[in-house]
Design a protein that fits this description.
The complex is a heterodimer of chains A (222) and B (341). Chain A has a single domain (11-219), classed as MetI-like (MetI-like fold), CATH 1.10.3720.10. Chain A is 81% helix and 0% strand. Chain A contains 11 helices and no strands. The radius of gyration of chain A is 20 Å and the shape is elongated. The termini of chain A are far apart. Chain B has 2 domains: 2-244, Rossmann fold (3-Layer(aba) Sandwich); 251-337, ACT domain (Alpha-Beta Plaits). In chain B, strands 6-7-8-3-9-10 form a 6-stranded mixed beta sheet, with helices on both faces. In chain B, a hairpin with a 2-residue loop joins strand 9 (210-215) and strand 10. In chain B, helix 3 (99-109) packs across helix 4 (114-127). The longest helix of chain B has 18 residues, at 173-190. Classes of the chains: A mainly alpha (222), B alpha/beta (341). Chain B: This is Methionine ABC transporter ATP-binding protein. Chain B: Keywords: Amino-acid transport, ATP-binding, Cell membrane, Membrane, Nucleotide-binding, Translocase, Transport. Chain B: Residues 2-241 form the ABC transporter domain. Chain B: InterPro entries: AAA+_ATPase, ABC_transporter-like_ATP-bd, ABC_transporter-like_CS, ACT-like_dom_sf, MetN_ABC, MetN_ABC_transporter-like, NIL_domain, P-loop_NTPase.
Chain lengths: 222, 341
Amino acid sequence: MIDSLFPNVDWDSMWEATLETLYMTALSTLFTFIIGLALGILLFLTAPKQLWANKVVNWLTGAFVNIFRSIPFIILIILLIPFTLFLMGSIRGPNAALPALIIGSAPFYARMVLIALKEIDKGVIEAARSMGATTGTIIWKVLLPESKPALISGITVTAIALVGYTAMAGIIGAGGLGTLAFLDGFQRSREDVTLMATILILIIVFVIQYIGDLVTTKADKR
Amino acid sequence: MIELKKVTKKFDTGKAVLTAVDQVDLSIADGEIFGIIGYSGAGKSTLIRLLNGLEKPTSGTVEINGKVITSIKGGELRKARQKVSMIFQHFNLLWSRTVKENIEFPLEIAGVSKAQRGKRVQELIELVGLSGRENAYPSELSGGQKQRVGIARALANDPEVLLCDEATSALDPETTDAILDLLVDINKRLGLTIVLITHEMHVIRKICHRVAVMEGGRVVELGDVLNVFQSPKEEITKRFVAQVTDSGDSQETIKNLRELYPTGELVKLVFVGEQTEQPILTKLIRSHSVEVNIVQGNISHTQRGAYGTLILQLKGSPGEMEEALAFLHSEDVQTEVMHND
């Protein structure tokens, strides 16, 4: 029955492509989370009147974030080819997609982190200072826990965007469901392959969204 | 002992320089409950933040128990802050932590071991009357309970000074009284110096020993709460005092009373401190043949004794009246015959 609906689908390569997509999404989400968090915290703390208020650092970080957030992803991939080649030694395969995926989405997540941190009640930070907390303690014990729900829902949105980005990276041969849909489906006019790849991507997105919502709700004690 | 010397704080807003605190000299004794009252914008929020170094003065020095807060920084300042703790109008609890974990926070900062933290938290929860709510989140507590957590958190590292930033302004009158009682209790039990800022004279009246009145960044009046209530000097102080005692001083009130009680004489008595506990009226009625009718009265209790006024209608022959007034004078009660002019 399924074989008659999808006559051209090679299930082994479909499964392999799904794993590649999951691999790229998981790793790039992890690095995006770490780098985006660091950039977001830096943006927050160097803003005027904050603990590390510093115009130059704030401006530089802001400029970096804005530039990389504004370049369309498909162009970013092409611009980063020399960098990727230098870093990974190849521009083909799932690993080669990672630098572009991370550089493309970390600034996006950094902005979300900044918004989340700005939502924190200033009084709570003042209270921590009045108890003699160091900036490190304020970051780990006030800023991060108090913005946890927003940080989690932000990384959920970013991870979903990254699933889309991995498909685009497929155009330059990153592998995964994007490559499969483009090369096997579109270029060979096998619509059933494209459809199956789309269904699998949708399932991945829904699962990420479901888990993200669940964790966000659980983390929110307000 | 807290000592402020010529403390000035200016804010540069870009367009203009705002002087929030202007040449303030203050000296607050150990174990004292010291109130600072003023309307919003008077500079009291800035002043209290100068005491724990959250704000740095433009000039002048702040000294607490021999430590010059204004000249230390970094680790030394953070260490000093553990002994000068603060509670806030909006409580400023971490919503992501339970009651227990919120109270534990300053202990974590001070590097207290986990086992000792648990023990100390339990003591504090009992002290502020929150037993049974240890594992609740702030969102599950009432305003009064949240402030109790704030107080427990502030007491965690055995501070020498407790700063209260409008600590009861977000609470209803009944809860305010309960929190104020708790502060007095802590002050007596732990010998803690309390400095509080407020715009409510009720708070000053109920718990403070001394009060400073602030206006435009300056301390315009300073003294024992009882004395300030009895004889406020500045116009602003009179307005604050009138918040809690309508002493019947205004011409309007006198005129109204005169119309209501046209016969005899209206006499205003002012009681201060111990006199309020003497049965002066009983003595007056027993030993004199004047007719006494109570027209209006109120008594305010402060930490340094009570303060009250009583307006009486006295009727009798001129001779009897004179004797009655002489008796009141001899009992050291401030007496004033109220004329309608």
